[in-house]
Automatic annotation (TrEMBL), chain A:
Its membrane topology: Multi-pass membrane protein
InterPro entries named in the record: Cyt-d_oxidase_su2
One GO biological process term: aerobic electron transport chain
Protein name from the UniProt record: Cytochrome d ubiquinol oxidase subunit II
Single GO MF descriptor: electron transfer activity
Automatic annotation (TrEMBL), chain B:
Name this polypeptide is given: Cytochrome ubiquinol oxidase subunit I
Transmembrane regions: 15-39, 51-74, 94-115, 127-150, 181-204, 216-234, 316-339, 351-371, 404-427
Species of origin: Mesorhizobium waimense
Family: Belongs to the cytochrome ubiquinol oxidase subunit 1 family.
Family annotation (InterPro entries): Cyt-d_ubiquinol_oxidase_su_1
Lipid bilayer topology: Multi-pass membrane protein
Keyword Transcription in annotation: no
GO molecular function, one term: oxidoreductase activity, acting on diphenols and related substances as donors, oxygen as acceptor
Keyword Iron (UniProt): yes
Biological process, per Gene Ontology: aerobic electron transport chain
Location within or outside the cell: Cell inner membrane; Cell membrane
UniProt keyword list: Cell membrane, Electron transport, Heme, Iron, Membrane, Metal-binding, Transmembrane, Transmembrane helix, Transport
GO cellular component assignments: cytochrome complex; plasma membrane
Length: 334, 453
């Protein structure tokens, strides 16, 4: 096969978009998760939990804008098809993101008596956004099926993704906090992990059976052999992490970041599986990435900028995370 | 109702809500940098106190801007799939560059700017403020470039009904772009300076005579007084640019039906599109010819030259008048306040009372101006390339109506909460005066915890 740009560009952009979605799910996953865990936390703990995500959430959400932006600019046809089919869940997602984003700031600035109200709105926004994302994933996996089966499956995935985000949130808290709250976070992680594993199992089983094309991609010798590490490794990581929760936190707080990194790895494996299932389609079984792509010259000019800017973005994002490294302290405007 | 008009109302509602917050953050970033640099230069802690009061407003406005901005990026797909289908090759890269070069920069350094004063060196903190302010401005650059391209498209060719880029320089710096960018940046500057002046006047009325109040008040008033004449000039230039490239919009702004010389400047009228005439017209003879052509016999385009191809007259005519009227009011108020502050070193109470509601005059003028130019582009979404009616998505009207209703309720509640918090912050600052512990400044050991205010 000879290399030519019109073939390569959509592929590159599909990878970039996948990367942006994966980074988004991992990063906003933990701060959405912390919003969900708000329901189970005491007042004083809520302030610490907010402090653990305060400096990051704006940048985390930007990855969603980049992912949707890339879908919009690189695959305009798919952007229209997917988003009109998911009109109501997209609306709920946005509603949730708006509510939690503003609650985040309002809760710290309103008179003390009104803070409770904004705490509740922060929880509500986080859970709505997480459920909406899960529902959209479920419906997308079944090929944008919006019939009863699709809706039921969407609801199942919604619950499980919310649980997975809660697990991410708990894992982040294990890294960023200490004392009682950290111990609580370990228990939260253990509980949420079971539901998250169940969700991943459900998606993994449903995907091949929803489409014979995907079934054939997985259950054919020798592909089955090459692909087997994906599910096996995910399962092992789940079990290992679950066992770890009985020993956390370690003395001297060693391995505090390990649960988060393990979960991130599980997300990445699951994501790789989905990517394999759907490639080369961007709208399942309807539009391939080449059919949906923008004109090559427009993709090229975006790529030129992306190649230069993306490493810089990743570099200064790391810098921002490093500045606010260590255990979360009271968040002050100074 | 039909999905087209509902989608337009929904998009209009979303973007109107969205623009309120960038209109603040674009210029407020630079004002914060000014406070910071004054503090660096003088060591006067009142500047830092002003910084910490207004950085909270910045944080809140930024959050409102981010969440409403995320909504916008989805709505292109949910409500206007035809837009990206036709001009995606042009709009896509511009939006992508906005996200890549600006959005990430702001979001990443905002954390350091807001919460990092004690974690990084003073120099890095100042740099973070510069990057956030610069990010918001670069963001405005790309968005204005795209919007201007939709108004006055250039540098492209149509192949099979789809726009393809030919000359990116011509696309970005299209004919109306420099004018619109300057007009919008100045509008943001005015919005912020009147907001700062207004909230400081509120503190003044509540008996606050602290140094930080005076510093913020003077900054707001003097910036406003300096920017408003520049804005009036820039607006006039933008109008002449529109006359050249979008004459039907000018015709609607002036409610002028017939092309010809000696066109009067209509001060008040109820344009009647069915009868194609103005009712209850009050006009200055030859005024429009004089303003637009700088001669009483100058020919001004009329709406009847563009049958079925001109924007609805009533909203464009009135949007323009509200914007200009607010601008005149801004000129009077800011110059009077500047006079009293400069010569008398005081602020008369009645003037302070007027300045409080004028704190929101920037929002009013900005919205009225955007309504004028965006409705003035109709029936086109991209002038001469794509009609708005051809871009709307296949979504059921009931879906659009339902979501629209929820958005509207949400936006009203959020606006009330936002304004409530601004007033609360101002009154709290008024009560604390110069006595509050100063966060983050070297001689104050305890900083005020933002999370438990």
């Amino acid at each position: 096969m000879t290399f030519d740009w019109p073939t390569a560009l959509p592929l590159i952009f599909a990878s970039l978009m996948g990367l942006a979605i994966l980074i988004y799910v991992i990063l906003d996953g933990f701060d959405l998760g912390i919003g969900i865990l708000f329901a189970a936390a005491e007042d004083a703990e809520q302030d610490t939990m907010i402090a653990a995500i305060g400096p990051f959430w704006d940048a985390n959400e930007t990855w969603l804008v980049l992912a949707v932006g890339l879908l919009l600019v690189a695959f305009p046809l798919a952007h229209g098809t997917i988003l009109t089919a998911l009109y109501i869940p997209v609306f709920l997602l946005l509603l949730g993101l708006i509510l939690r984003g503003v609650a985040f700031d309002f809760r710290a600035k309103v008179p003390a008596g009104r803070k409770h109200r904004w705490n509740r709105i922060f929880f509500l926004g986080s859970i709505i956004a997480s459920l909406a994302q899960g529902y959209m994933l479920g419906v997308y996996v079944l090929g944008l099926d919006v019939g009863f089966g699709g809706m039921a499956f969407g609801a199942l995935v919604a619950l499980c993704l919310a649980a997975a985000y809660a697990a991410m949130g708990a894992a982040w808290l294990i890294y960023k906090t200490e004392g009682e709250l950290q111990k609580k976070a370990v228990v939260w992680l253990r509980t949420a992990l079971v539901l998250a594993a169940l969700g991943m199992l459900a998606v993994s089983l449903a995907t091949p059976f929803a489409s014979p094309r995907i079934f054939d991609k997985w259950f054919v010798w020798p592909q089955m052999l090459y692909l087997s590490p994906l599910p096996i490794l995910s399962a092992l990581l789940f079990v290992w992490l679950w066992r770890q929760t009985f020993h956390l936190p370690r003395p001297d707080d060693r391995h505090a970041l390990t649960p988060f990194l393990t979960l991130a790895a599980i997300f990445a494996l699951g994501f790789a599986g989905l990517a394999w299932s759907f490639y080369p389609f961007v709208v399942p079984d309807k539009l391939t990435i080449w059919q949906a792509a923008s004109a090559p010259e427009s993709l090229a000019i975006i790529l030129a900028g992306t190649v230069v800017v993306l490493p810089i973005i990743i570099f200064y994002s790391f810098y921002a995370y490093r500045v606010f490294g260590g255990k979360a302290t009271d968040l002050t405007y100074d | 109702m039909d999905p087209l008009i509902l989608s337009r109302i929904q998009f209009g509602a979303n973007i109107s809500f969205h623009i309120l917050f960038p209109a603040i953050t674009i210029a407020l970033g630079w004002v914060l940098l000014f406070f910071k640099l004054r503090y660096n230069a003088t060591g006067d802690s009142a500047w830092m106190r002003a910084y910490f009061t207004w950085v909270k407003v910045f944080a809140l406005s930024f959050a409102m801007g981010v969440v409403s901005g995320v909504t916008m990026s989805f709505q292109f797909g949910t409500n206007w799939p035809g837009y990206m289908k036709t001009v995606g090759n042009i709009a896509g890269p511009l939006l992508a560059y906005e996200i890549l070069t600006a959005f990430f920069l702001e979001a990443a350094f905002l954390g350091i700017m807001l919460f990092g004063f004690r974690r990084v060196s003073n120099r890095i903190h100042t740099l973070a403020t510069v990057l956030v302010a610069g990010g918001t401005t670069v963001s405005a650059f790309w968005i204005i470039a795209l919007n201007s391209w939709m108004q006055t498209p250039a540098g492209f060719e149509m192949r099979d009904g789809v726009a393809h880029a030919v000359d990116w320089w011509a696309i970005v710096f299209n004919p109306s772009m420099p004018y619109r960018l300057v007009h919008m940046l100045l509008a943001s500057g005015l919005t912020v300076s009147f907001l700062i002046a207004g909230l400081s006047a509120l503190r003044y009325l509540y008996g606050d005579r602290s140094e930080s109040m005076w510093k913020a008040l003077r900054t707001g008033v003097f910036t406003a007084a300096m920017l408003i004449p520049i804005q009036i000039f820039a607006g006039d230039q933008h109008g002449l640019n529109t006359l050249e490239h979008q004459p039907q919009k000018i015709a609607a702004m002036e409610a002028n039906w017939n092309t010809g010389p000696n066109v009067p400047l209509v001060l008040f009228a109820l344009p009647d599109e069915a009868a194609r005439e103005n009712r209850f017209e009050i006009a200055i003879p030859d005024g429009a010819s004089l303003v637009l052509r700088h001669s009483t016999s100058g020919v001004v385009p009329g709406l009847n030259d563009y049958p079925g191809n001109h924007p609805p007259v009533f909203p464009v005519f009135w949007g323009f008048r509200i914007m200009v009227g607010t601008g005149v009011l801004m000129l009077i108020v800011s110059w009077s306040a500047a006079f009293f502050l400069k010569r008398r070193h005081s602020l008369p109470k009645p003037l302070a009372l007027i300045m409080v509601p004028m704190g929101l005059s920037g929002w009013l003028a900005t919205l009225a101006g955007w309504y004028t130019t965006e409705i003035g582009r109709q029936p086109w979404l991209v002038t001469g390339v794509l009609k708005t009616a051809d871009a709307v998505g296949p979504v059921a009207g009931s879906h659009v109506a339902l979501t629209l209703a929820v958005y509207l309720i949400l936006y009203v509640l959020l606006l009330i909460a936002y304004l409530g918090v601004l007033v609360h912050l101002a009154l709290k600052a008024a009560k604390d005066g110069d006595a509050s512990p100063l966060p983050g400044v070297m001689n104050a050991a305890l900083s005020q915890p933002a999370v438990s205010e």
